[in-house]
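Inputs:
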Amino acid sequence: MGFIALLFSLVTLPLWAGEPVPPGPFTDAECVACHWKWDPMVIETLRTGPHGAESGVVCSDCHGDRHQSAAQARQNPVCIDCHKGPASHSYATSKHGVISRLDRSSGDQPLQRGNYRAPGCAYCHLHDKDHGDTMVPKSDPMARQLICSGCHSPRYVSEQLAAGQRLVEVAELKMAEALALIQGAPEPGAEELKKLEAGTKDHLSNVRLGAGHQSPDYQWWHGQPALDGDLIRIRDRIATERRRKAMEQVPKQRSIK
Amino acid sequence: MRTPLIVLVLSLTALASGFAYVQWSKGGTGAGLYSRLWSPDPVQGYWDPAKFYQSTQMVEGVFQGEQCVQCHESITPGIVADWRNSRHAKAGERVWCSACHGDDHQRLHLPTPEVCGGCHEKQHGEFKDEADYGFPSHVLAMDRALSAPHFVDKPKAEVQSCVQCHSVATKCDSCHTRHRFDAAEARRPEACITCHSGPPHPDDDSYFASAHGRLYLAEGDQWDWSKPLVKGNYKVPTCAYCHMDGGRHQVARKSLWKFGLQEINPHTSANKALRREWIGLCGDCHEKEQARGWLSALDQERKQAWQKLYATEDILKGLRADDLLFPAPGERPPYPLEAPGGPGSKVRIGYFEGQASAFYNVSAIERDYFEMWYFDNLGAYKAAAHGHWAGVARGHKRMSESMQRIEAGARDLRALGEAERKAGIKSDSGGLWQGGAYTDHNRERN
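Outputs:
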């Protein structure tokens, strides 16, 4: 009798396993309390990742407060609601972004290799349920290699990732050059230099976004040549200021003569 | 009697040696006019496969299409899924992996336009013939990028960004993304925006903000994109509808105002013929008289833009003539093509002097003009050409502001120069331009 009951329960497992879930709505604490049992990896990576408690982001921000909402959370607009500006525009103008926009998927497939025509935000950054960020520089580089390799050859991926890294290093050299120039200026805290420094940081960030999202326009026009312009203007402010100062000394000598 | 003969012989010799020199200069490790001055990064092979792709030696064997698919289903499932959903996988006319990549795994290649042209002969032929219409061009885009001074001057890791768009000349998947290669996808405006966006060519912003673009954004997802690009099939024109009318793969063929980069005379007989073509195209939906008016408005816009640009160029040329640019050309870092005092060491002002590379290693006032010409001016032009009138006003406002900034900057340079001359001091930039983390890296490692 016991055997039959066990067999019955095993056969109907999918039914009764899904049944006890009430329709919601759920609070963040309720989501975490339950999913801690089913998906400890999801909760663990969420807690230690950029969307952890300090960020103020709660489950319902992406998933809504009802159940069965993974498909909704996999869609790009959910992310873009918060990540506006260059962060998402660099993606939207990339080939991945364009294909995602034109070939809209329902998002009902798990975020695993082979399931999507082009990667959406979540496919790369929350790959295979990882709720940390699989793409931040400190995450495992092998994870990045594997995620891209679902569609691209391993050699293509490693060479593109290396090229992106070198591109960012060049931009970081420009940033270092800018900071050294500003530190050596007669008045490093001058308002104009502060503004230029902020612009330089933005342009470095654009290069990073362009490399990460494969957006040539962010790598280039919003990035590298913009940094060249920052360096030119920082130098010009400093050198012209020195020229003016040198001239201020002159009239006194002339008047003595 | 002899003189003309000598002149003829000399000219022919000069012509032949010039031709030989260009051929020689293209024979280096890189490609393009300065090929002897640079070597490619390994990733270049993916952007310019005909010249630089080298097959991996990891897997041995000759494989049939079914075998490729069987194995790659687990190695790169995304590619296989894409191919399965493409027309290439359709029963009866199936195009297997080996048709484009070869079947010997040690000698695989990436398909160049020639490979696609093996079947898509008409489109490939049209694409190649675009070269007859000069610049701007898709088919000449890679040569153009590699022959730009900044491609040689800057670290190869940096200029990798350039070839990602300029590879539109060397591969077909810039528009027909692999491995679906869907014509319906390439017909939509988004297919163009990865490259046609950003400050010098805001084609995306100007089109999407126009009446055409707004209607596309509102309704385009519901349209049938499998239809050809001809009259009656689409409610509003998209990039391809106007620039590749009838599906003709010669995007720049009807280019009349040449991208807004150089001034053109719109009234030559050739340009009048092009204008009639444009009016005919607008006539698919609009009254021709109305179309004529819009094109005249564009002429007017360009005329005003060039007045502003030439007036500003004059200011800069005046500073150059009076040796007032700061820093002077000789005080700028020795980029490979611009060793101090060398033949390349000069200040470039205006389109024909090479203004397109004047965004680094220049003085602040020259950079201001570069941005005025390349960003403000082209922003206004794209807006005018795409019917985004607020964008035209904004572009011209920015041009006027840039012009005022340059005028003020020139006054300062003249005042300072004059004061220094009177005081008898000769100021220089104190070596400020000569060193730094990036500048040193480029000098030593590039």
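Remarks. Residues 156-256 of chain A form one domain. The two ends of chain A are 119 Å apart (CA to CA).
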